[in-house]
Design a protein that fits this description.
Layout lengths: L6 E5 L2 E2 L22 E2 L6 H7 L2 H4 L4 E5 L10 H11 L2 E6 L4 H10 L2 H4 L2 E6 L2 H6 L3 H14 L2 E6 L9 H12 L4 E2 L3 E2 L6 E2 L5 H8 L5 H9 L14 E5 L4 E3 L6 E4 L23 H7 L10 H5 L12 H6 L13 H34 L1
Helix pairs in contact: 1-3, 4-7
The structure holds iron/sulfur cluster.
The site of iron/sulfur cluster has 12 residues, from helix 11.
């Protein structure tokens, strides 16, 4: 049975989308040309990226999360990338709005059965947008296509105040079409410094409304939302954040850069962040459920993603259920308190050195402009 060795979240360079959901994180960045950034080429070929992050170099099979700021499936190199990852023996997921039918056909056709067992599709169920664009049937047929192909899937709703009047309708629809209720994430407002909850409701009311979906994803994500993490975090050692457009990989959001996969001959560099630099772990349903803070009581990733339908079928294959039931600590040795203390010091020194370098660069630029 495969155990999760590292969690690697990949930013796929698509800054475009065929949808305009009101709660979309892209739309919170008011000063940026958010939907006009287009689709940018990967920093290296999918084959070269995967050979950089090979099983041998990483120490075992890893979970690669593939998500774009826009619609992930639009990227022309994505299917090849998934093919290379799953052929290597890694596990992957694609986050998608589920509407690009031709891409699903191509994806299914390109993968062997053994590769399909290492992939899941995270269907973002944009109920109102699907209705207003008259694309619900397209979405349903793509979910069904994926189900029949042997690829695992999960249906997830981003909770939004406009959806509240439709909750009963959504539940009835989901039970009929997916055999179970969708999972629920927690919507964040990226336009706020503290990354606040995106709602007009109080925290208590928000919980009361959305917990009726009985989603382990929501329950855990909500329990850690806006809670500053003070424990030692293994992000950077047990997980990586990779920008596929530039090749740069880092410890976590706001963490130090560790290397670039374009430097094909160098080993993958790992260094734990230790102290979290974010107001809260807003994607802790992945980082923390897979186990970046091992002492934190958290569900397994499969508990957050799978559902058993009324007819007794799982959304996830047996192989994926086993893999996503494991935690990072099952494959990685923990650091002693002494080692953790050393890492805090190393990180603090490197952090200060980087600030110093940036300051010198800025001063040099200013002097140049003054001349
Ligand atoms: S607690 Fe979460 S956001 Fe903070 S460093 Fe760890 S994984 Fe990253």
């Amino acid at each position: 049975m495969d155990k999760i060795n590292k969690f690697v979240t990949c930013l796929i360079p698509v800054h475009a989308c065929n949808f305009r959901c009101q709660y979309c994180y892209l739309s919170h960045h008011v000063n940026e040309n958010v939907y006009g950034g287009g689709i940018r080429t990967f920093a290296a070929s999918p084959k070269d990226i995967v050979s950089y992050f090979s099983i041998k170099r990483m120490g075992g099979p890893c979970y690669f999360n593939l998500c774009a700021p826009g619609e992930t499936m639009m990227h022309p190199q994505l299917i090849d990338f998934v093919g290379e990852l799953t052929m290597e023996g890694h596990y992957a997921d694609i986050v998608t709005n589920g509407t690009l039918t031709k891409k699903f056909d191509d994806l299914i056709e390109s993968l062997k059965e053994s590769q399909r067992k290492r992939l899941f599709i995270k269907f973002s169920f944009h109920y109102l947008e699907l209705k207003s664009k008259n694309m619900m049937e397209v979405f349903l047929s793509n979910v069904e296509k994926i189900r029949k192909s042997g690829i695992s899937y999960s249906i997830e709703i981003t909770p939004h105040d406009d959806l509240v009047p439709y909750i009963d309708e959504i539940k009835t629809f989901s039970l009929k079409n997916f055999g179970a209720l969708p999972h629920i994430t927690v919507a964040r407002n990226e336009g706020t410094k503290e990354i606040a909850l995106l709602t007009k409701y109080s925290r208590e009311k928000y919980k009361e409304i959305w917990s009726t979906f009985d989603s382990a994803l929501f329950d855990f994500k909500f329990s850690i939302f806006n809670v500053k993490r003070k424990e030692f975090c293994y992000a950077g050692l047990w997980s990586l954040t990779v920008n596929i457009e530039t090749g740069v990989y880092s410890q976590c959001y706001g963490g130090d850069e560790l290397g670039n996969f374009k430097d094909a001959d160098t080993a993958v560099h790992f260094r734990p962040i230790g102290k979290c630099r974010q107001p809260h772990c807003f994607n802790g349903h992945a980082f923390l459920a897979t186990g970046d803070i091992p002492e934190l009581i958290a569900p397994t990733y499969i508990e957050e993603r799978d559902r058993i339908t009324a007819s007794g079928e799982h959304w996830f294959s047996k192989e994926e259920r086993e893999f996503f039931s494991t935690k990072l600590a099952n494959s990685n040795g923990a650091l002693s308190n002494n080692q953790k203390r050393k890492q805090y010091i190393v990180n603090a020194c490197l952090y200060c050195a980087n600030i110093g370098k940036r300051f010198v660069r800025k001063m040099k630029r200013n002097v140049k402009h003054a001349h």
